[in-house]
């Protein structure tokens, strides 16, 4: 299963890229995130592997995230013509996901965030969920992006007044 979602954010691209890559900010916009800790490497750097834990209702999911592309490597003083790429692979029980984010300057104080998600499922349960509810994955991705936009533009924190 593969899909792409995009959202426009009313902030400069450099600021958006820095916020997305900042582990201290993730719990404020990444709904359900319990833990995101590097196992090896430095967060936000190419090749870093992290343990990631999400809690969604009664369901707890643990996965390993590996950063597969950060381009440019430094998220400061990025020329306006350069598209920022931030790609990760996430492996959990019965699933593999590639997350490919492109952060594009869309004008003064405007950023376009394009997020491509690709999933593969090993286990019969996850394959069944993907078959019966493919829209739930897209809906969750869109929710994460909308939460990020609200956090980046207005300082809203998903941990306060959860929807």
Number of helices: 4
Rounded radius of gyration (Å): 16 Å
Show unreliable segments. none
What percent of the residues sit in helical stretches (DSSP H or I)?
25-40%
Q: What's the arrangement of strands in the largest beta sheet? A: 1-7-6-5-4-3-2
Per DSSP E runs of 2 or more residues, the count of β-strands stands at: 7
Notes on the protein architecture:
The chain is α+β, with helices and mostly antiparallel strands. It has a domain at 2-31 and 72-153: Alpha-D-Glucose-1,6-Bisphosphate, Chain A, domain 4, CATH 3.30.530. 26% of the residues lie in helices and 44% in strands. It has helices at 13-21, 26-29, 124-132, 134-154; strands at residues 2-9, 33-40, 49-56, 59-71, 84-92, 95-107, 110-121. A seven-stranded antiparallel sheet has the order 1-7-6-5-4-3-2. Strand 2 (33-40) and strand 3 (49-56) form a beta hairpin. The radius of gyration is 16 Å and the shape is globular. Pfam families: Polyketide_cyc2. InterPro entries: Polyketide_cyclase/dehydratase, START-like_dom_sf. It comes from Promicromonospora umidemergens. This is Polyketide cyclase/dehydrase/lipid transport protein.
């Amino acid at each position: 299963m593969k899909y792409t979602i995009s959202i426009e954010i009313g902030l400069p691209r450099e600021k958006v890229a820095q916020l997305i890559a900042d582990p201290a900010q993730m719990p404020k916009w990444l709904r359900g995130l319990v833990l995101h800790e590097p196992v090896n490497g430095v967060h936000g750097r190419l090749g870093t592997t992290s343990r990631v834990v999400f809690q969604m209702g009664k369901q707890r999911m643990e996965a390993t995230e590996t950063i597969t592309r950060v381009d440019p490597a430094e998220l400061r003083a990025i020329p306006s013509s350069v598209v920022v790429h931030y790609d990760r692979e996430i492996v959990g029980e019965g699933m593999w996901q590639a997350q490919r984010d492109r952060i594009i300057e869309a004008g003064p104080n405007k950023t376009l965030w394009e997020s491509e998600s690709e999933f593969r499922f090993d286990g019969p349960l996850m394959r069944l969920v993907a078959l019966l509810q493919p829209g739930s994955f897209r809906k969750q991705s869109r929710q994460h992006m909308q939460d990020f936009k609200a956090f980046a533009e207005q300082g809203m924190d998903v941990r306060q007044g959860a929807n």
